[in-house]
Protein backbone atom coordinates (compact mmCIF):
# COMPACT_ATOMS: atom_id res chain seq x y z
CA UNK A 1 0.00 0.00 0.00
CA UNK A 2 2.80 2.42 0.92
CA UNK A 3 4.68 1.51 -2.24
CA UNK A 4 1.62 2.18 -4.39
CA UNK A 5 1.00 5.56 -2.77
CA UNK A 6 4.61 6.63 -3.37
CA UNK A 7 4.63 5.81 -7.06
CA UNK A 8 1.09 6.60 -8.12
CA UNK A 9 2.24 10.01 -9.33
CA UNK A 10 4.89 8.49 -11.61
CA UNK A 11 3.05 5.39 -12.80
CA UNK A 12 2.93 6.72 -16.38
CA UNK A 13 6.70 7.24 -16.35
CA UNK A 14 7.25 3.72 -15.00
CA UNK A 15 4.94 2.26 -17.63
CA UNK A 16 6.93 4.04 -20.34
CA UNK A 17 10.09 2.60 -18.81
CA UNK A 18 8.72 -0.95 -18.88
CA UNK A 19 7.56 -0.51 -22.47
CA UNK A 20 10.96 0.80 -23.56
CA UNK A 21 13.28 -1.65 -21.82
CA UNK A 22 12.75 -4.64 -24.10
CA UNK A 23 12.96 -2.58 -27.27
CA UNK A 24 16.12 -0.81 -26.05
CA UNK A 25 18.04 -4.04 -25.54
CA UNK A 26 16.73 -5.91 -28.55
CA UNK A 27 19.56 -7.97 -30.03
CA UNK A 28 20.12 -9.14 -33.55
CA UNK A 29 20.94 -12.66 -32.44
CA UNK A 30 17.77 -14.56 -31.46
CA UNK A 31 19.36 -16.18 -28.37
CA UNK A 32 20.56 -12.86 -26.96
CA UNK A 33 17.20 -11.35 -27.79
CA UNK A 34 15.39 -14.18 -26.00
CA UNK A 35 17.66 -13.77 -22.98
CA UNK A 36 16.93 -10.03 -22.84
CA UNK A 37 13.19 -10.54 -23.13
CA UNK A 38 13.32 -13.18 -20.40
CA UNK A 39 15.17 -10.79 -18.07
CA UNK A 40 12.82 -7.84 -18.37
CA UNK A 41 9.64 -9.90 -18.44
CA UNK A 42 10.56 -11.01 -14.91
CA UNK A 43 9.64 -7.52 -13.74
CA UNK A 44 10.88 -6.45 -10.34
CA UNK A 45 10.10 -3.35 -8.33
CA UNK A 46 12.10 -1.00 -10.60
CA UNK A 47 13.14 0.84 -7.45
CA UNK A 48 16.36 2.28 -8.90
CA UNK A 49 14.80 3.92 -11.97
CA UNK A 50 11.83 5.03 -9.84
CA UNK A 51 14.19 7.00 -7.58
CA UNK A 52 15.74 8.64 -10.65
CA UNK A 53 12.28 9.64 -11.89
CA UNK A 54 11.26 10.97 -8.46
CA UNK A 55 14.41 13.10 -8.25
CA UNK A 56 13.72 14.42 -11.74
CA UNK A 57 10.22 15.48 -10.71
CA UNK A 58 11.60 17.03 -7.50
CA UNK A 59 14.22 19.11 -9.28
CA UNK A 60 12.33 20.33 -12.35
CA UNK A 61 9.75 23.08 -12.43
CA UNK A 62 7.86 21.48 -15.33
CA UNK A 63 5.00 18.96 -14.89
CA UNK A 64 6.79 16.30 -16.94
CA UNK A 65 10.39 15.19 -16.81
CA UNK A 66 12.82 15.40 -19.73
CA UNK A 67 13.58 12.65 -22.22
CA UNK A 68 17.14 12.57 -20.83
CA UNK A 69 15.87 11.84 -17.31
CA UNK A 70 13.70 9.03 -18.66
CA UNK A 71 16.63 7.60 -20.56
CA UNK A 72 18.86 7.75 -17.47
CA UNK A 73 16.23 5.80 -15.52
CA UNK A 74 16.20 3.17 -18.28
CA UNK A 75 20.01 3.00 -18.38
CA UNK A 76 20.07 2.52 -14.61
CA UNK A 77 17.77 -0.49 -14.82
CA UNK A 78 19.71 -2.03 -17.72
CA UNK A 79 23.01 -1.71 -15.81
CA UNK A 80 21.41 -3.22 -12.71
CA UNK A 81 19.97 -6.13 -14.71
CA UNK A 82 23.32 -6.78 -16.40
CA UNK A 83 24.98 -7.02 -13.00
CA UNK A 84 22.34 -9.50 -11.81
CA UNK A 85 23.00 -11.78 -14.79
CA UNK A 86 26.69 -11.96 -13.92
CA UNK A 87 25.95 -12.31 -10.18
CA UNK A 88 23.69 -15.29 -10.87
CA UNK A 89 26.43 -17.06 -12.82
CA UNK A 90 29.00 -16.45 -10.07
CA UNK A 91 26.61 -17.44 -7.26
CA UNK A 92 25.07 -20.32 -9.25
CA UNK A 93 21.53 -19.09 -8.56
CA UNK A 94 18.77 -21.15 -10.12
CA UNK A 95 16.00 -18.57 -9.77
CA UNK A 96 15.79 -14.78 -9.62
CA UNK A 97 12.57 -12.84 -8.96
CA UNK A 98 10.80 -16.18 -8.99
CA UNK A 99 11.84 -17.11 -12.53
CA UNK A 100 14.65 -19.27 -13.91
CA UNK A 101 17.95 -17.41 -14.28
CA UNK A 102 19.47 -16.84 -17.71
CA UNK A 103 22.41 -19.21 -17.21
CA UNK A 104 20.04 -21.96 -16.00
CA UNK A 105 17.73 -21.43 -18.95
CA UNK A 106 20.48 -21.16 -21.57
CA UNK A 107 24.09 -21.63 -20.41
CA UNK A 108 26.84 -19.85 -18.50
CA UNK A 109 28.39 -18.70 -21.76
CA UNK A 110 25.14 -17.15 -23.00
CA UNK A 111 24.51 -15.52 -19.61
CA UNK A 112 27.96 -13.90 -19.54
CA UNK A 113 27.52 -12.69 -23.11
CA UNK A 114 24.02 -11.41 -22.32
CA UNK A 115 25.36 -9.47 -19.33
CA UNK A 116 28.19 -8.04 -21.43
CA UNK A 117 25.70 -7.12 -24.14
CA UNK A 118 23.50 -5.26 -21.66
CA UNK A 119 26.49 -3.36 -20.27
CA UNK A 120 27.46 -2.43 -23.83
CA UNK A 121 23.94 -1.28 -24.68
CA UNK A 122 23.75 0.82 -21.53
CA UNK A 123 27.10 2.44 -22.42
CA UNK A 124 25.86 3.30 -25.90
CA UNK A 125 22.67 4.93 -24.61
CA UNK A 126 24.68 6.68 -21.91
CA UNK A 127 27.01 8.21 -24.49
CA UNK A 128 23.99 9.42 -26.45
CA UNK A 129 22.86 11.55 -23.52
CA UNK A 130 25.60 13.93 -24.71
CA UNK A 131 26.43 14.94 -21.14
CA UNK A 132 30.05 14.21 -20.29
CA UNK A 133 29.58 14.70 -16.53
CA UNK A 134 26.79 12.13 -16.42
CA UNK A 135 28.79 9.73 -18.59
CA UNK A 136 31.78 9.94 -16.22
CA UNK A 137 29.58 9.47 -13.15
CA UNK A 138 27.58 6.48 -14.39
CA UNK A 139 30.36 4.68 -16.27
CA UNK A 140 32.42 4.35 -13.07
CA UNK A 141 29.63 2.16 -11.67
CA UNK A 142 30.52 -0.70 -14.00
CA UNK A 143 34.08 -0.62 -12.65
CA UNK A 144 32.69 -0.60 -9.12
CA UNK A 145 30.63 -3.74 -9.85
CA UNK A 146 33.77 -5.61 -10.82
CA UNK A 147 35.58 -4.33 -7.73
CA UNK A 148 32.72 -5.50 -5.52
CA UNK A 149 32.61 -8.95 -7.06
CA UNK A 150 36.36 -9.42 -6.65
CA UNK A 151 36.20 -8.31 -3.01
CA UNK A 152 33.31 -10.67 -2.36
CA UNK A 153 34.99 -13.56 -4.14
CA UNK A 154 38.17 -13.17 -2.08
CA UNK A 155 36.28 -13.29 1.23
CA UNK A 156 33.97 -16.28 0.74
CA UNK A 157 33.51 -18.13 4.05
CA UNK A 158 35.99 -15.75 5.71
CA UNK A 159 34.42 -15.06 9.10
CA UNK A 160 37.24 -12.67 10.06
CA UNK A 161 36.12 -9.88 7.73
CA UNK A 162 34.93 -6.70 9.44
CA UNK A 163 31.57 -4.99 9.17
CA UNK A 164 33.41 -2.01 7.62
CA UNK A 165 34.74 -4.28 4.86
CA UNK A 166 31.20 -5.59 4.31
CA UNK A 167 29.89 -2.01 4.00
CA UNK A 168 32.64 -1.12 1.53
CA UNK A 169 31.85 -4.18 -0.59
CA UNK A 170 28.13 -3.32 -0.42
CA UNK A 171 28.89 0.14 -1.73
CA UNK A 172 30.64 -1.26 -4.79
CA UNK A 173 27.98 -3.91 -5.49
CA UNK A 174 24.80 -1.94 -4.76
CA UNK A 175 25.06 1.61 -3.47
CA UNK A 176 27.41 2.90 -6.18
CA UNK A 177 24.75 2.59 -8.91
CA UNK A 178 22.01 4.21 -6.82
CA UNK A 179 24.32 7.04 -5.72
CA UNK A 180 25.57 7.72 -9.24
CA UNK A 181 22.11 7.63 -10.81
CA UNK A 182 20.78 10.05 -8.18
CA UNK A 183 23.67 12.41 -8.87
CA UNK A 184 23.19 11.96 -12.62
CA UNK A 185 19.52 12.96 -12.33
CA UNK A 186 20.58 16.11 -10.46
CA UNK A 187 23.16 16.85 -13.15
CA UNK A 188 20.54 16.57 -15.89
CA UNK A 189 18.39 19.02 -13.90
CA UNK A 190 21.38 21.42 -13.96
CA UNK A 191 21.62 21.74 -10.20
CA UNK A 192 24.76 23.19 -8.67
CA UNK A 193 27.63 20.96 -7.61
CA UNK A 194 26.78 21.07 -3.92
CA UNK A 195 23.20 19.91 -4.58
CA UNK A 196 24.47 17.19 -6.92
CA UNK A 197 26.69 15.91 -4.12
CA UNK A 198 23.76 15.92 -1.67
CA UNK A 199 21.77 13.69 -4.01
CA UNK A 200 24.82 11.45 -4.39
CA UNK A 201 24.99 11.00 -0.60
CA UNK A 202 21.25 10.36 -0.48
CA UNK A 203 21.64 7.58 -3.03
CA UNK A 204 24.76 6.16 -1.39
CA UNK A 205 23.23 5.72 2.05
CA UNK A 206 19.87 4.69 0.62
CA UNK A 207 21.71 2.01 -1.35
CA UNK A 208 23.62 0.77 1.69
CA UNK A 209 20.41 0.57 3.74
CA UNK A 210 18.72 -1.24 0.86
CA UNK A 211 21.52 -3.83 0.68
CA UNK A 212 21.49 -4.45 4.44
CA UNK A 213 17.70 -4.91 4.33
CA UNK A 214 18.09 -7.33 1.42
CA UNK A 215 20.67 -9.29 3.40
CA UNK A 216 18.36 -9.43 6.42
CA UNK A 217 15.54 -10.72 4.22
CA UNK A 218 17.83 -13.53 3.07
CA UNK A 219 17.61 -14.77 6.67
CA UNK A 220 14.03 -13.92 7.69
CA UNK A 221 12.20 -13.91 4.34
CA UNK A 222 10.40 -16.67 2.49
CA UNK A 223 11.29 -18.36 -0.78
CA UNK A 224 8.05 -17.08 -2.32
CA UNK A 225 8.75 -13.48 -1.35
CA UNK A 226 12.44 -13.54 -2.23
CA UNK A 227 12.08 -15.48 -5.47
CA UNK A 228 15.00 -17.66 -4.34
CA UNK A 229 15.76 -19.98 -1.39
CA UNK A 230 16.45 -18.33 1.97
CA UNK A 231 20.04 -18.57 3.18
CA UNK A 232 21.42 -18.13 -0.34
CA UNK A 233 24.12 -15.76 0.91
CA UNK A 234 25.17 -18.27 3.55
CA UNK A 235 25.30 -21.12 1.07
CA UNK A 236 27.56 -19.10 -1.24
CA UNK A 237 29.81 -17.97 1.60
CA UNK A 238 28.77 -14.32 1.35
CA UNK A 239 28.93 -13.14 4.95
CA UNK A 240 26.50 -10.26 5.41
CA UNK A 241 25.60 -7.93 8.29
CA UNK A 242 23.26 -10.26 10.24
CA UNK A 243 25.77 -13.09 9.87
CA UNK A 244 28.78 -11.01 10.92
CA UNK A 245 27.01 -9.59 13.97
CA UNK A 246 25.88 -13.07 15.04
CA UNK A 247 29.44 -14.38 14.76
CA UNK A 248 30.45 -12.21 17.69
CA UNK A 249 28.35 -14.42 19.98
CA UNK A 250 28.21 -17.81 18.26
CA UNK A 251 31.12 -20.23 17.97
CA UNK A 252 28.70 -22.77 16.52
CA UNK A 253 27.96 -20.54 13.53
CA UNK A 254 31.68 -19.92 13.10
CA UNK A 255 32.32 -23.68 12.95
CA UNK A 256 29.55 -24.21 10.38
CA UNK A 257 31.04 -21.49 8.17
CA UNK A 258 34.56 -22.83 8.67
CA UNK A 259 33.33 -26.21 7.40
CA UNK A 260 31.53 -24.47 4.49
CA UNK A 261 28.20 -26.10 5.43
CA UNK A 262 29.36 -29.56 4.45
CA UNK A 263 26.14 -31.26 5.69
CA UNK A 264 22.74 -30.78 4.07
CA UNK A 265 21.19 -29.54 7.29
CA UNK A 266 23.92 -26.99 8.03
CA UNK A 267 22.30 -24.06 6.19
CA UNK A 268 18.98 -24.40 8.00
CA UNK A 269 20.88 -24.83 11.28
CA UNK A 270 22.87 -21.63 10.60
CA UNK A 271 19.72 -19.68 9.67
CA UNK A 272 18.11 -20.80 12.91
CA UNK A 273 21.14 -19.64 14.94
CA UNK A 274 21.01 -16.19 13.31
CA UNK A 275 17.27 -15.87 13.79
CA UNK A 276 17.62 -16.62 17.51
CA UNK A 277 20.60 -14.33 18.09
CA UNK A 278 21.06 -10.58 18.45
CA UNK A 279 22.72 -10.15 15.04
CA UNK A 280 19.45 -9.45 13.23
CA UNK A 281 18.58 -6.52 15.51
CA UNK A 282 22.08 -5.11 15.15
CA UNK A 283 21.79 -5.38 11.37
CA UNK A 284 18.40 -3.63 11.49
CA UNK A 285 19.96 -0.83 13.56
CA UNK A 286 22.70 -0.48 10.94
CA UNK A 287 20.13 -0.27 8.13
CA UNK A 288 18.19 2.39 10.05
CA UNK A 289 21.38 4.35 10.67
CA UNK A 290 22.20 4.53 6.97
CA UNK A 291 18.60 5.34 6.08
CA UNK A 292 18.55 8.20 8.57
CA UNK A 293 21.79 9.52 7.07
CA UNK A 294 20.23 9.31 3.60
CA UNK A 295 17.13 11.23 4.65
CA UNK A 296 19.14 13.87 6.51
CA UNK A 297 20.95 14.76 3.27
CA UNK A 298 17.61 15.97 1.86
CA UNK A 299 17.13 18.61 4.55
CA UNK A 300 19.40 21.29 2.96
CA UNK A 301 17.63 20.75 -0.39
CA UNK A 302 14.04 21.22 0.76
CA UNK A 303 12.02 24.33 0.10
CA UNK A 304 9.11 25.27 2.35
CA UNK A 305 6.74 25.48 -0.58
CA UNK A 306 7.85 22.13 -1.99
CA UNK A 307 6.37 18.88 -0.62
CA UNK A 308 7.81 16.74 -3.40
CA UNK A 309 10.61 15.55 -1.13
CA UNK A 310 8.06 13.56 0.83
CA UNK A 311 8.16 10.88 -1.88
CA UNK A 312 11.93 10.42 -1.43
CA UNK A 313 11.44 10.11 2.33
CA UNK A 314 8.66 7.56 1.86
CA UNK A 315 10.92 5.45 -0.37
CA UNK A 316 13.18 5.08 2.64
CA UNK A 317 10.30 4.08 4.89
CA UNK A 318 9.13 1.55 2.30
CA UNK A 319 12.56 -0.10 2.21
CA UNK A 320 12.78 -0.39 5.99
CA UNK A 321 9.23 -1.65 6.50
CA UNK A 322 10.10 -4.90 4.73
CA UNK A 323 12.06 -6.10 7.79
CA UNK A 324 9.37 -5.26 10.38
Overall description:
InterPro entries: Isoprenoid_synthase_dom_sf (IPR008949), Polyprenyl_synt (IPR000092), Polyprenyl_synt_CS (IPR033749). This is Prenyl transferase. Keywords: Chloroplast, Isoprene biosynthesis, Magnesium, Metal-binding, Plastid, Transferase. The chain has 324 residues and is an all-alpha fold. Helix 4 runs antiparallel to helix 5 and helix 5 runs parallel beside helix 8. The protein is globular, with a radius of gyration of 20 Å. The mean pLDDT is 88. It is built from 17 helices and two strands. 43% of the residues are buried. It has one domain: Farnesyl Diphosphate Synthase. The protein has a two-stranded antiparallel sheet.
| Regions with little confidence, pLDDT below 50 for 5+ residues | none
Number of domains: 1
- How many strands appear in the DSSP assignment? 2
Overall form: globular
Named at the architecture level, the CATH assignment is Orthogonal Bundle
Looking at CATH, the homologous superfamily is: Farnesyl Diphosphate Synthase
Q: Would you tell me the structural class of the helices and strands?
A: mainly alpha
Strand order of the largest sheet: 1-2
User: Main sheet, how many strands, which sense, barrel?
Assistant: 2 strands, antiparallel
CATH topology: Farnesyl Diphosphate Synthase
Rg over CA atoms, rounded to whole Å, is 20 Å
Q: Number of DSSP helices?
A: 17
Q: What is the helix/strand order? A: HHHHHEEHHHHHHHHHHHH
* Name of the top-level CATH class: Mainly Alpha
GO molecular function: metal ion binding; prenyltransferase activity
Protein name: Prenyl transferase
Cofactor: Mg(2+)
Family: Belongs to the FPP/GGPP synthase family.
